[in-house]
C-alpha cells in the first residue's frame, strides 16, 4: 500500500529544516507537492502564502528571487518598501505595483522597463514629467496617456510614432496643428479625424488617401467639391455622401 503523499514527502526530506514543520503540516496549513513554501514552484509558494499571508514578511529576504517576489505580493505594504532596490527586477516589479503613491518617484529611474511602466501608470500627474524623456517608448506612451492636456505638446515631436499617435488622440482640437505635418500618415489620420474645420480643409490635400478620407466629416460641405476628382474611389464616395441630402423615408401605406 502506497504511503500518503504528505508522509512520502516528509520521508524524502522535503520538509527537512523547514521552521514550520511539523505544526503547519499537522494543522493542514501546508501540503508538500501542493502548498509548500519551500518548493521551487511559484504556484506552490503562492498557494501557501494565500493560505498563510501572515507568513509572507518572513520571506522577503529569501535567497530565492521568486519566493521574495511572491512574498512581496502578500506582505504588508509597510514591510516591502525597502525592496525598492532589490537585486531582482521581478521583485521590484511587484514593489512598483504595490508601493504607496508617495513612495513611487524613487523608482522612476529603475533600469527595468516593466518597473518604469508600473511607475508611469501610477505616478501622480504632477510627477509624470520625470518620465517624459524615458529611453523606452512604451514608458513615454504611458506618460502621454496620462499627462494633463496642457503638457502634451512636449511629446508632439517624440521620435516614436506610437507615442505621437497617443498625443494625436488626446491633444485638444485647437492644438492638433502641431501634428498636421507629421511624417507618419497614421498620425495625420488621427489628426484629421479630430481636426477643426480649417485644419481639416488643409488635410483634404494630404498625399495619403486615408488621411483625406478621415478629414471629410470635419470639412465644411462647400469645400468638398475639391474631392470630385480624387483618385481614390472611397474618398470620392465619402465626399458625395456628405454632399447628398438624406433621403426622406417613405411613409408607410395606410390600410
Structural topology:
Layout: H1 5-11, H2 23-26, H3 42-51, H4 65-74, H5 77-80, H6 89-98, H7 113-122, H8 137-146, H9 161-170, H10 185-194, H11 197-203, H12 209-215, H13 233-243
Helix pairs in contact: 3-4, 4-6, 6-7, 7-8, 8-9, 9-10, 10-12, 12-13
Polypeptide structure, described:
The protein has 255 residues and is an all-alpha fold. It folds into three domains: 14-118, Leucine-rich Repeat Variant, CATH 1.25.10; 124-171, no CATH class; 173-243, no CATH class. It is built from 13 helices and no strands. It has helices at residues 5-11, 23-26, 42-51, 65-74, 77-80, 89-98, 113-122, 137-146, 161-170, 185-194, 197-203, 209-215, 233-243. Helix 7 runs parallel beside helix 8 (137-146). The radius of gyration is 30 Å and the shape is elongated. 34% of the residues are buried. The mean pLDDT is 91.
In short:
This protein has helices at 5-11, 23-26, 42-51, 65-74, 77-80, 89-98, 113-122, 137-146, 161-170, 185-194, 197-203, 209-215, 233-243. It is mostly helical and 255 residues long.
Give the mean pLDDT.
91
Report the β-strand fraction as a percent range: under 5%
DSSP helix fraction: 40-55%
Level-1 CATH class name of the largest domain: Mainly Alpha
Q: Gyration radius, to the nearest Å?
A: 30 Å
Going by CATH, what is the homologous superfamily of the largest domain?
Leucine-rich Repeat Variant
The CATH architecture of the largest domain can be named as: Alpha Horseshoe
CATH topology of the largest domain: Leucine-rich Repeat Variant
Main sheet properties: none
Strand elements, count: 0
The span between the termini is 87 Å
Shape: elongated
Number of structurally distinct domains: 3
**Run of helices and strands:** HHHHHHHHHHHHH
Uncertain segments are none
Amino acid at each position: 500500500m502506497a504511503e500518503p503523499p504528505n508522509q512520502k514527502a516528509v520521508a524524502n526530506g522535503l520538509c527537512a529544516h523547514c521552521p514550520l514543520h511539523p505544526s503547519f503540516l499537522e494543522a493542514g496549513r501546508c501540503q508538500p507537492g501542493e502548498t509548500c513554501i519551500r518548493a521551487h514552484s511559484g504556484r506552490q509558494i503562492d498557494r501557501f502564502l494565500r493560505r498563510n499571508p501572515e507568513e509572507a514578511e518572513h520571506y522577503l529576504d529569501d535567497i530565492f528571487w521568486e519566493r521574495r517576489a511572491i512574498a512581496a505580493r502578500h506582505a504588508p505594504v509597510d514591510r516591502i518598501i525597502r525592496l525598492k532596490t532589490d537585486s531582482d527586477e521581478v521583485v521590484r516589479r511587484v514593489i512598483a505595483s504595490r508601493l504607496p503613491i508617495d513612495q513611487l518617484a524613487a523608482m522612476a529611474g529603475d533600469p527595468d522597463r516593466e518597473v518604469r511602466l508600473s511607475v508611469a501608470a501610477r505616478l501622480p500627474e504632477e510627477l509624470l514629467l520625470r518620465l517624459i524623456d524615458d529611453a523606452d517608448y512604451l514608458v513615454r506612451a504611458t506618460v502621454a496617456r496620462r499627462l494633463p492636456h496642457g503638457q502634451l505638446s512636449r511629446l508632439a515631436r517624440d521620435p516614436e510614432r506610437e507615442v505621437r499617435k497617443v498625443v494625436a488622440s488626446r491633444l485638444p482640437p485647437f492644438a492638433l496643428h502641431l501634428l498636421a505635418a507629421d511624417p507618419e500618415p497614421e498620425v495625420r489620420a488621427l489628426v484629421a479625424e479630430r481636426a477643426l474645420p480649417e485644419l481639416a480643409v488643409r488635410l483634404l490635400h494630404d498625399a495619403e488617401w486615408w488621411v483625406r478620407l478621415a478629414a471629410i466629416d470635419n470639412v465644411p460641405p462647400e469645400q468638398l467639391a475639391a474631392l470630385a476628382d480624387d483618385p481614390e474611389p472611397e474618398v470620392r464616395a465619402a465626399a458625395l455622401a456628405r454632399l447628398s441630402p438624406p433621403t426622406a423615408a417613405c411613409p408607410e401605406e395606410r390600410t
